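Hey all, quick one. A colleague (J.T.) asked me to put the zinc ion job into the tracker so the inputs and the structure tokens live in one place instead of scattered across chat threads. No bug as far as I know, just bookkeeping. Sequence used:
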Amino acid sequence: MTRLWKRTRPLAVAAIVAGALTGALPLPAAAEPPPVPVTTAADAVAAGPARVFPLLAAPRYGDGLGASRGHEGQDLFAPAGTPEVAVSDAVVLEAAAGYDGGRGNYVSIYDPAADRTYNYFHMIAAPQVAPGQHVARGQELGQLGCSGSCWGDHLHFELRAGRDPYGPVLDPAPFLHTLPPAGRVGLAEAQMVRTAAESR
Ligand SMILES: [Zn+2]
């Protein structure tokens, strides 16, 4: 026992000293590199107060990025009909109804302030917005459902870099966890924004 202590102790001390010198805690050897890009601190900053959660519900988290054969988003389970809202002020890039592919009824919106695109798949019915339309943070885009390739009512939410519904995939989970609930306040604010815009 004593001999083992003598053999391992200097290594531990060396690791602690190295950590102190570099300002970092000693870490285990690096694992495999992540298979896909992840969100950065800049994304968390971009989340801030100008953005809200994409659902008017506290969902159950399902499959995330990389799950089940290259899954490119985060599944958020909630009751059918739950309003899905714009994460931020944005412009609608795509809005498809009756699409029988994997996405089902879906909406894609672009957030110019963050230079990010958000995709919402599997809506219960046709989206409430159209391509080219400007939407306010918290504005309803459609309702949660299970159209397309789907096995249970949920929002498949994607975060992509740039102005492109098919752009580089980012992990939406860390981003989602930074967002405050949309709630009814979000909808009320969106209504105020729309009213102010219409009265100009
Ligand atoms: Zn999904």
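Adding what we noticed when we looked at it: The chain has two domains: 1-30, 41-199. Residues 61 and 76 are 5 Å apart (CA to CA).
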